[in-house]
Specification:
InterPro entries: aa-tRNA-synt_IIb, aa-tRNA-synth_II, aa-tRNA-synth_II/BPL/LPL, Anticodon-bd, Anticodon-bd_dom_sf, Pro-tRNA-ligase_IIa, Pro-tRNA-ligase_IIa_arc-type, Pro-tRNA_ligase_II_C. By secondary structure, the protein is an alpha+beta fold. It has 14 helices and 23 strands. The chain is 35% helix and 26% strand. The structure holds 5'-O-(N-(L-cysteinyl)-sulfamoyl)adenosine (5CA) and zinc ion (ZN). The site of zinc ion (ZN) has 7 residues, from loops.
Length: 483
């Protein structure tokens, strides 16, 4: 990387730090000749695959079947749900020709797959015995984002778009699914050592076609929030538009209730941003392509063979299921440290002649940059313990940052003060009326994330007043500058 960006200075340099790291850590190459579409490089893709592997295992665990739909959707299908169209008409890419011939029915590249899937749901779902119906896919989707694009965060080809689509026999069972999605998301967040908050979006900002939307937000180093997951309850909106009915046990016909759950490569952006430091990536051991890198430190005219010693340790770690690499390049150890710290390898083991003689090894942690000497004989347990310590430290450090960036206020002035000096999330009383919510967005030049979820936690304390209209505040509303 260029000049080292000190962690504490991230708020001014975060964007520059992030854009440089995408390239220097080997995550993506941004030089592809289509704006907002980047190339996954081997190291970045390995990390993303490790994240996806966890998502696939969660889908397995919760009875979702993986499907794979075409990327092209006929305009006739896209047109069926009015609100959904309205929400996406400015964002879809059109395919209008094939070869030299104009298409009689224009096609869109999927921005998300409701309008691709739901005519098939209508054919597949016939009886209550088919419910709950739960499918998902991880595919590329396309959105003509007009705001500032940014690698992994706001792209026009969302190349690792996770979308789960479910159908249920009742609103209550759809609500159960939303709770299951939140549990899945919580296990994934723990796997990534990332704390988050869930807010119920205001009606003016819910997903097009949804009855309500939940957003999971993380706090980025510059005090802006990033939405890394969404869950939507569609009730019967799409079922009526796509005629998705099932025969009840009493022989009646009912429209299904539906939900969706979406995430993307933003998950990797959050890991990079939240855990990274001025030396580069800091990867949680759960998703690091290389969990341990061993650096042999040979000394001139030393009898012992540090390379053989290093390889033995590597073998033992590999046999214990740990992803390990021995760096035998003929360059200075310091250069090796720099390279692997930049790539966020969580644990480095250094072995010199003295360690061979004494049956020791030095374990260096990437998150705290501290070292400890351990017995060669206990290397597997020592590495596993270090992984646990790193996961706990990364999570606690990030939770402390998130919590210190959530401020409860009573007035617009106080809220403005928060955004002026270090941003973050503001929680402010709200009467629940749209015009007051929109007024506060305008006054604060910030987005309303919504109200805390579940709703029991969203109630305003007794006697609080809406700072816009002065009426009794029903809720606490959250505002933030967002990505
Ligand atoms: N332009 C984008 N670049 C990267 N990730 C994005 C982009 N747009 C949305 N996402 C991610 O994709 C997730 C799902 O997108 S969404 O619009 O909120 N929801 C849907 O599309 C629903 N059909 C659920 S799959 C979001 O939570 C966000 O994390
Ligand atoms: Zn009000």
């Amino acid at each position: 990387m260029g000049g080292k960006v000190k962690r504490e200075k991230w708020s001014e340099n975060f964007s520059e730090w992030y854009n440089e790291l995408i390239e220097t850590a080997g995550i993506q190459d941004k030089r592809y000749p289509v704006k907002g579409m980047n190339i996954w490089l081997p190291y970045g893709l390995k990390i993303m695959r490790n994240i996806e592997r966890f998502i696939h295992s969660e889908m397995e665990r919760t009875g979702h079947d993986e499907v794979l739909f075409p990327a092209l959707i006929p305009e006739t299908e896209f047109q069926k749900e009015a609100e959904h169209i309205k929400g996406f008409e400015g964002e879809v890419y059109w395919v209008t020709h094939a070869g030299l011939d104009p298409l009689d029915v224009r096609l869109i590249l999927r921005p998300t797959s409701e309008t691709a899937m739901y005519s098939m749901f209508s054919l597949w779902i016939r009886s209550h015995a088919d419910l709950p119906f739960k499918v998902y896919q991880i595919v590329n989707t396309y959105r003509y984002e007009t705001k500032h694009t940014r690698p992994l965060i706001r792209v026009r080809e969302i190349s690792r778009f996770f979308e789960a689509h479910t159908a249920h026999d009742s609103y209550e069972d759809a609500e159960r699914q939303i709770r299951e999605d939140l549990e899945i998301f919580d296990r994934l967040a723990k796997f990534l050592a990332i704390p988050y908050i869930v807010s119920k979006r205001p009606d003016w900002d819910k997903f097009p076609g949804a009855y309500y939307s939940l957003g999971a937000e993380v706090m980025m180093p510059d005090g802006r929030t990033l939405q890394i997951g969404t869950m939507h309850n569609y009730r019967q909106n799409f079922a009526k538009a796509y005629n998705i009915q099932y025969e009840t046990e009493e022989g009646e016909h009912e429209y299904v209730h539906q939900t969706t759950f979406g995430m993307s490569e933003r998950l990797l952006a959050a890991v990079m941003a939240i855990h990274g430091d001025d030396n580069g990536l800091v990867l949680p051991p759960t998703i690091a392509p290389i969990q341990v890198v061993i650096v042999p430190i040979p000394k001139k005219d030393a009898e012992v063979d540090v390379f053989a010693y290093a390889r033995e340790i590597a073998e033992e770690l590999r046999d214990a299921g740990i992803r390990v690499h021995v760096d035998e390049r003929d360059i200075r150890p310091g250069r090796k440290y720099y390279d692997w710290e930049l790539k966020g390898v969580p644990v480095r083991i250094e072995v010199g002649p003295k360690d061979v003689e004494g049956g020791k090894a030095v374990i260096a942690r990437r998150d705290t940059l501290t070292k400890e000497v351990v017995e060669r004989a206990e290397i597997v347990e020592a590495v596993r313990r270090t992984f646990d310590e790193i996961m706990e430290n990364l999570y606690n450090r990030a939770r402390e940052f998130l919590e210190s960036h959530i401020k409860r206020v009573d007035t617009i002035e106080e809220a403005k003060g928060v955004f002026e000096n270090r941003r973050g999330i503001v929680e402010i009383p709200w009467c629940g009326e749209e015009e007051c919510g929109l007024k506060m967005e305008e006054e604060l030049d910030a987005k309303m994330l919504g109200i805390p979820y579940p709703e029991e936690t969203a109630k305003a304390p007794e006697g609080k007043k809406c700072p816009v209209c002065g009426r009794e505040a029903k809720f606490i509303a959250r505002f933030a500058r967002t990505y």
